Amino acid sequence: MVRFEDPPAPRRGVPRADHKAAAEELRGLPGMWGFVTAYQAQSAAAQAASNIRNGDAQAYQPKGAFDATSRTVNGEYRLYVKFIGEETSGDAG
After folding, report:
1. How many beta carbons lie within 10 A of that of residue 93, not counting itself?
2. Domain range spanning residue 31?
3. Which residue among 28, 35, 58, 83 has the highest number of C-beta atoms inside a 10 angstrom radius?
4. Per-residue pLDDT, 70
5. Could you tell me where the DSSP H helices lie in the chain?
6. 2, 23, 34, 62, 63 from 27: Cα distances, Å
7. Do the Cβ atoms of 77 and 36 come closer than 8 Å?
8. What is the distance, to the nearest Å, from the Cα of residue 31 to the centroid of all Cα atoms in its chain?
């Protein structure tokens, strides 16, 4: 049986996320996961998450302050990030 419908518009790439703005927003809600952006390939989403966890993404510095993961949802390769908090150094007393 044929399903009659117009094809979707061709994808010309995913708009770039403003990671600096995303990181600032996530800092305001520690421990809350946020959907930051979607990628065209699962490997790209996974690499972005790895870069954030490893401290290689400048917007999400310092290393260890953010957790990140990628998930496939309805064929969309999503990047989720949460702010964990920053370690503070100094004497307690």
Report:
1. 2
2. 19-83
3. 83
4. 97
5. 19-27, 42-53
6. 49, 6, 11, 12, 14
7. no
8. 14
Give Cα 86 distance to the centre of its chain: 18
State the average pLDDT over residues 3-23: 78
Tokens of 92: 């307690």
How far separated are the first and last CA of the chain, in Å rounded? 76
User: Can you give the pLDDT at residue 93?
Assistant: 46
Domain count, the chain: 1
The percentage of residues in the chain with a pLDDT greater than 70, rounded to a whole number, is 84
Structural domain includes residue 23? yes
Residue 10 in any domain: the answer is no
C-beta atoms surrounding 81 within 10 Å: 27
- 68: in domain: yes
Alpha-carbon distance of 36 to 2, in angstroms, equals 37
Residue 92 identity (one-letter amino acid): A
